[in-house]
Amino acid sequence: MWRWLQQFLGGPTGRAPSAEHLQRGTAGERAARDYLGKQGWKLLAANYRVPEGEIDLVFRDREVLVFVEVKTRTDERWQRPAAAVDSQKRRRVSRAALAYLNSLGRPRVKFRFDVVEVLLPAEGPAVIRHWPNAFPLSQPYRYVAVEEREGGGGRRR
Protein backbone atom coordinates (compact mmCIF):
# COMPACT_ATOMS: atom_id res chain seq x y z
CA MET A 1 0.00 0.00 0.00
CA TRP A 2 2.90 2.35 0.75
CA ARG A 3 4.22 2.04 -2.78
CA TRP A 4 0.81 2.71 -4.19
CA LEU A 5 0.49 5.83 -2.02
CA GLN A 6 3.94 6.99 -3.04
CA GLN A 7 3.10 6.52 -6.74
CA PHE A 8 -0.18 8.32 -6.22
CA LEU A 9 1.59 11.26 -4.62
CA GLY A 10 4.23 11.31 -7.35
CA GLY A 11 7.12 10.20 -5.16
CA PRO A 12 10.05 8.07 -6.20
CA THR A 13 9.34 4.50 -7.18
CA GLY A 14 11.45 1.42 -7.51
CA ARG A 15 13.30 2.12 -4.28
CA ALA A 16 12.31 0.97 -0.85
CA PRO A 17 10.27 3.85 0.54
CA SER A 18 11.47 3.24 4.03
CA ALA A 19 15.24 3.07 3.48
CA GLU A 20 15.81 6.14 5.62
CA HIS A 21 13.38 4.78 8.18
CA LEU A 22 15.28 1.48 8.30
CA GLN A 23 18.62 3.27 8.72
CA ARG A 24 17.18 5.31 11.58
CA GLY A 25 15.82 2.15 13.18
CA THR A 26 19.20 0.44 12.89
CA ALA A 27 20.94 3.47 14.43
CA GLY A 28 18.39 3.49 17.26
CA GLU A 29 18.91 -0.21 17.95
CA ARG A 30 22.66 0.33 18.01
CA ALA A 31 22.26 3.22 20.48
CA ALA A 32 19.97 1.11 22.68
CA ARG A 33 22.36 -1.84 22.53
CA ASP A 34 25.28 0.37 23.56
CA TYR A 35 23.25 1.99 26.34
CA LEU A 36 22.12 -1.33 27.83
CA GLY A 37 25.59 -2.83 27.39
CA LYS A 38 27.01 0.01 29.49
CA GLN A 39 24.55 -1.01 32.23
CA GLY A 40 26.42 -4.30 32.41
CA TRP A 41 23.84 -6.33 30.53
CA LYS A 42 24.95 -9.15 28.25
CA LEU A 43 23.64 -9.13 24.69
CA LEU A 44 22.33 -12.55 23.67
CA ALA A 45 20.64 -11.81 20.35
CA ALA A 46 19.78 -8.95 18.02
CA ASN A 47 16.91 -8.90 15.54
CA TYR A 48 15.70 -12.36 16.49
CA ARG A 49 13.17 -13.27 13.81
CA VAL A 50 10.75 -16.15 13.61
CA PRO A 51 7.53 -16.47 11.62
CA GLU A 52 5.60 -15.53 14.75
CA GLY A 53 7.34 -12.18 15.24
CA GLU A 54 10.57 -10.34 15.95
CA ILE A 55 12.52 -9.16 18.96
CA ASP A 56 14.90 -6.25 18.49
CA LEU A 57 17.30 -7.17 21.30
CA VAL A 58 17.59 -9.97 23.83
CA PHE A 59 19.73 -9.30 26.89
CA ARG A 60 20.58 -10.98 30.14
CA ASP A 61 20.37 -8.67 33.14
CA ARG A 62 21.85 -10.81 35.90
CA GLU A 63 19.29 -13.62 36.34
CA VAL A 64 16.60 -12.11 34.14
CA LEU A 65 16.16 -12.56 30.41
CA VAL A 66 15.07 -9.25 28.91
CA PHE A 67 13.30 -8.92 25.57
CA VAL A 68 13.76 -5.36 24.36
CA GLU A 69 11.62 -3.52 21.84
CA VAL A 70 13.37 -0.42 20.48
CA LYS A 71 11.39 2.47 19.03
CA THR A 72 13.30 5.23 17.28
CA ARG A 73 12.01 8.59 16.14
CA THR A 74 13.49 11.92 15.15
CA ASP A 75 11.01 13.81 17.33
CA GLU A 76 7.85 13.37 19.37
CA ARG A 77 5.47 15.65 17.47
CA TRP A 78 2.96 12.91 16.75
CA GLN A 79 3.41 10.64 19.72
CA ARG A 80 6.01 9.20 22.01
CA PRO A 81 7.91 6.32 20.45
CA ALA A 82 6.79 3.87 23.14
CA ALA A 83 3.17 4.55 22.17
CA ALA A 84 3.87 2.63 18.95
CA VAL A 85 4.17 -0.57 20.99
CA ASP A 86 0.48 -1.34 20.72
CA SER A 87 -1.35 -4.56 21.54
CA GLN A 88 -0.53 -6.13 18.16
CA LYS A 89 3.16 -5.34 18.56
CA ARG A 90 3.18 -6.69 22.12
CA ARG A 91 1.52 -9.88 20.87
CA ARG A 92 4.13 -10.35 18.10
CA VAL A 93 6.98 -9.73 20.54
CA SER A 94 5.40 -12.14 23.03
CA ARG A 95 5.09 -14.88 20.39
CA ALA A 96 8.70 -14.35 19.31
CA ALA A 97 9.83 -14.46 22.95
CA LEU A 98 8.03 -17.78 23.44
CA ALA A 99 9.70 -19.11 20.29
CA TYR A 100 13.06 -17.93 21.65
CA LEU A 101 12.42 -19.68 24.98
CA ASN A 102 11.30 -22.83 23.16
CA SER A 103 14.54 -22.77 21.18
CA LEU A 104 16.39 -22.84 24.50
CA GLY A 105 14.38 -25.84 25.72
CA ARG A 106 11.93 -23.80 27.81
CA PRO A 107 14.27 -22.96 30.67
CA ARG A 108 12.97 -21.97 34.06
CA VAL A 109 14.03 -18.32 33.94
CA LYS A 110 12.53 -15.00 34.83
CA PHE A 111 11.91 -12.81 31.85
CA ARG A 112 10.40 -9.45 31.10
CA PHE A 113 9.67 -7.07 28.24
CA ASP A 114 11.33 -3.65 28.15
CA VAL A 115 10.90 -0.78 25.73
CA VAL A 116 13.70 1.61 24.84
CA GLU A 117 12.81 4.91 23.19
CA VAL A 118 15.55 6.50 21.11
CA LEU A 119 15.16 10.03 19.84
CA LEU A 120 17.61 10.91 17.09
CA PRO A 121 17.05 14.58 16.34
CA ALA A 122 18.57 16.19 13.25
CA GLU A 123 20.79 18.21 15.55
CA GLY A 124 21.98 17.46 19.01
CA PRO A 125 22.63 14.29 20.94
CA ALA A 126 20.43 11.23 21.01
CA VAL A 127 17.97 10.88 23.86
CA ILE A 128 17.43 7.40 25.26
CA ARG A 129 14.62 6.45 27.62
CA HIS A 130 14.36 2.98 29.07
CA TRP A 131 11.06 1.52 30.26
CA PRO A 132 11.78 -1.67 32.23
CA ASN A 133 8.95 -4.19 32.49
CA ALA A 134 6.94 -2.16 29.99
CA PHE A 135 4.35 -4.85 29.31
CA PRO A 136 3.51 -8.41 30.37
CA LEU A 137 3.38 -11.51 28.21
CA SER A 138 0.36 -10.99 25.97
CA GLN A 139 -2.78 -12.96 26.55
CA PRO A 140 -3.68 -15.70 25.82
CA TYR A 141 -0.07 -16.88 25.76
CA ARG A 142 1.38 -18.53 28.80
CA TYR A 143 4.90 -19.66 29.41
CA VAL A 144 5.34 -23.03 31.07
CA ALA A 145 8.86 -24.19 31.72
CA VAL A 146 9.51 -27.89 31.29
CA GLU A 147 10.06 -28.32 35.04
CA GLU A 148 6.69 -26.75 35.84
CA ARG A 149 4.87 -28.91 33.29
CA GLU A 150 6.32 -32.02 34.86
CA GLY A 151 5.29 -31.15 38.39
CA GLY A 152 8.25 -29.09 39.55
CA GLY A 153 10.76 -31.88 39.88
CA GLY A 154 10.91 -33.00 36.29
CA ARG A 155 13.96 -33.15 34.15
CA ARG A 156 14.83 -30.61 31.57
CA ARG A 157 14.82 -31.71 27.99
Q: Per DSSP, what share of the residues sits in E-state strands of 2 or more residues?
A: 25-35%
Trace the largest sheet across and list its strands. 1-2-3-4-5
The largest sheet is: 5 strands, mixed
Structural class by SSE content: alpha+beta
Report how far the terminal alpha carbons are from each other.
Answer: 45 Å
Radius of gyration: 18 Å
Strand-and-helix sequence, N→C? HHEEEHEEH
Number of strands: 5
Uncertain segments are: 7-15, 153-157
Alpha plus pi helix count: 4
Q: Helicity level, as a percent range?
A: 25-40%
> So what's the overall shape?
globular
Q: What multimeric state do the chains show?
A: single chain
Q: What number is the mean pLDDT?
A: 84
Give the topology, please.
Layout: H1 2-9, H2 19-38, E1 42-50, E2 53-61, E3 64-73, H3 87-103, E4 110-119, E5 127-135, H4 146-149
Protein described:
- This protein has 157 residues and is α+β, with helices and mostly antiparallel strands.
- The chain is 31% helix and 30% strand.
- The protein contains four helices and five strands; from the N terminus they run ααβββαββα.
- Strands 1-2-3-4-5 form a five-stranded mixed sheet.
- A hairpin with a 2-residue loop joins β1 and β2 (53-61).
- The model is unreliable at 7-15 and 153-157 (pLDDT under 50).
